[in-house]
């Protein structure tokens, strides 16, 4: 997404707990503009620093994409066997890691009279999924809060939408054999489009939702999973 957005002219702040420098280098090599910040989106001080960095460098924030989550490292297990500490960790990152950036940018976007917020949910929150209830619950919360936030911010020219992907074969997901074994076959059987989903499958949908052309599209959950929902 970052590389594609940069190709369309966006100047990017890439926030990650790890070093996003390689993506910055890829973008700059193609003539784009990007900087990286080490950010844990579940920590208010990290989020505030990220926003301050963006404002100092670019003077405004038009677009926020919240795509950080604990997912690929989870081991599927029955509901009764999910430790409470894991519940707290997943909910803190997946929910508050969306809430905190939204809260930090909303005054800036209100002042501009313009903004695009794109949050990532999951198609598991639309139709359910066994053995990953901590993850499903967190993504259901993201989708619900996005619908409400869209109503709060719409009068200030800000849209809030959600992409709810199905299982996508990212490097992280493929590295987790438990995740692959539990979900991959099930996802393939359900799809109308019978092939594996890859990250590029969500990029064009994301690009539309942050574009000028989506100015009258808000409070929507767009399921990108090869159909059906």
UniProtKB/TrEMBL annotation:
Coiled coil: none annotated. Gene3D superfamilies: NAD(P)-binding Rossmann-like Domain (3.40.50.720). Belongs to the short-chain dehydrogenases/reductases (SDR) family. InterPro entries: NAD(P)-bd_dom_sf, Sc_DH/Rdtase_CS, SDR_fam. It holds the Pfam family adh_short_C2. This is NAD(P)-dependent dehydrogenase (Short-subunit alcohol dehydrogenase family).
């Amino acid at each position: 997404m970052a590389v594609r957005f940069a190709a369309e002219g966006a100047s990017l702040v890439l926030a990650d707990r790890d070093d996003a420098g390689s993506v910055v280098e890829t973008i700059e090599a193609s003539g784009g503009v990007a900087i990286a910040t080490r950010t844990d989106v579940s920590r208010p001080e990290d989020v505030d620093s990220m926003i301050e960095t963006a404002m100092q460098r670019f003077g405004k924030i038009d677009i926020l994409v919240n795509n950080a989550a604990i997912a690929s490292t989870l081991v599927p297990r029955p509901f009764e066997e999910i430790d409470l500490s894991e519940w707290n960790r997943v909910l803190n990152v997946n929910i508050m890691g969306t809430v905190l950036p939204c809260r930090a940018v909303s005054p800036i976007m209100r002042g501009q009279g313009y903004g695009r917020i794109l949050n990532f949910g999951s198609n598991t929150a639309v139709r359910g999924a066994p053995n990953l209830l901590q993850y499903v619950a967190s993504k259901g919360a993201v989708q619900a809060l996005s619908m409400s936030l869209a109503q709060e911010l719409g009068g200030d020219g800000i849209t809030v939408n959600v992409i709810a992907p199905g299982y996508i074969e990212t490097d992280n997901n493929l590295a987790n054999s438990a995740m692959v074994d539990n979900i991959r076959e099930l996802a393939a059987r359900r799809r109308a489009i019978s092939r594996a989903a890859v990250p590029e499958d969500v990029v064009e949908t994301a690009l539309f939702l942050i574009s000028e052309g989506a100015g009258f599209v808000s409070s929507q959950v767009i399921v990108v999973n090869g159909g059906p929902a």
